[in-house]
């Protein structure tokens, strides 16, 4: 069941699964997605954990408010959601843009974080020219003009060939994204510069990345690992950007083992 709650003058959509009294895990989605991107991961967590997944401002069923957005603004939405639900601390799991949001929360709201799982993400996303091209494409053709390029970044070629049912679902998810919501959030990703900020993170941290991710590469994950104290990294073979969908069993096992290990 989808719930909506007002946070900083924005209606944020979320849903909860698992025991109401369990330790809390919050899942933060990627650009051009919504909380359905976690469908393959929920069952591995909800036997013991209260799992909350939400749509980032401008995405899914959350409100598209006027820009500009920043990663700090989106991180404050996440903390605001925790406040509204009376959650003092949580395990934060974010993929791509969601991971960027979780980095910010980990660095600037350390008392709210039990652990960080930073998946297929980065602390900076240059060059600006890349984003200019995508924005021009979006203005010309809408989100539909970005679908094929996105699919090719998000998944390895074999997965696209063999998993048409999943690919169809993902395409529908991408197409449901508001062009304004996409451009506002993508601008926040474009303008992000968080590498030095990583030094402030003290929570136990797992860096998880698909070996073939062209969007947020293994090298970018290595930067996260080196900058965050005691961070550990796991590479998932034969996976690209949405490793949680391509390799759900490996992804789920890594996340669950890590979170279970945090005392």
SSE arrangement:
Elements: E1 3-7, E2 10-17, E3 24-28, E4 50-54, H1 71-84, E5 90-95, H2 97-108, E6 113-119, H3 128-141, H4 147-154, H5 157-162, H6 164-175, H7 179-191, E7 205-210, H8 218-227, E8 232-236, H9 243-246, H10 248-261
Parallel strand pairs: 3-4, 3-5, 5-6, 6-7, 7-8
Antiparallel strand pairs: 1-2, 2-4
Helix pairs in contact: 1-2, 3-7
Apparent shape: globular
How many domains make up the 3D coordinates? 1
The biggest sheet amounts to: 8 strands, mixed
Percent range of helical residues: 40-55%
Chain-averaged pLDDT? 97
CATH topology: Rossmann fold
Q: Give the amount of beta strand, in percent.
A: 15-25%
Instruction: Give the C-alpha Rg.
Output: 17 Å
Spans of at least 5 consecutive residues whose pLDDT stays below 50 are: none
What is the CATH superfamily label? Alpha/Beta hydrolase fold, catalytic domain
* CATH uppermost class: Alpha Beta
| Number of strand elements | 8
Which architecture per CATH? Answer: 3-Layer(aba) Sandwich
Distance between the termini: 31 Å
């Amino acid at each position: 069941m989808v719930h909506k709650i007002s946070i900083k003058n924005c209606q944020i959509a979320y849903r909860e699964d698992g025991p109401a009294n369990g330790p809390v895990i919050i899942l933060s989605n990627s650009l051009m997605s919504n909380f359905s991107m976690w469908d393959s991961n929920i069952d591995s967590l909800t036997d013991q954990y209260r799992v909350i997944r939400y749509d980032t401002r401008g995405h899914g069923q959350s409100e598209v408010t006027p820009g500009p957005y920043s990663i700090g603004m989106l991180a404050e939405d996440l903390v605001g959601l925790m406040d509204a639900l009376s959650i003092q601390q949580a395990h934060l799991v974010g993929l791509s843009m969601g991971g960027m949001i979780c980095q910010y929360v980990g660095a600037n709201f350390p008392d709210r974080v039990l652990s960080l799982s930073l998946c297929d993400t980065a602390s900076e996303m240059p060059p600006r020219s890349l984003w200019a091209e995508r924005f021009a494409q979006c203005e010309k053709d809408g989100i539909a003009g970005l679908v094929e390029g996105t699919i090719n970044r998000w998944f390895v070629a074999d997965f696209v060939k063999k998993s048409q049912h999943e690919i169809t679902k993902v395409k529908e998810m991408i197409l449901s994204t508001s062009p304004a919501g996409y451009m506002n959030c993508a601008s926040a990703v474009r303008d992000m510069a968080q590498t030095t900020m990583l030094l402030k993170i003290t929570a136990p941290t797992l860096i998880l990345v698909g070996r073939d991710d062209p969007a947020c590469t293994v090298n970018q994950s290595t930067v996260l690992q080196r900058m965050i104290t005691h961070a550990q990294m796991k590479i998932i073979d034969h996976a690209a950007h949405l490793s949680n969908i391509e390799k759900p069993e490996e992804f789920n096992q890594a996340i669950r083992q890590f979170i279970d290990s945090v005392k």
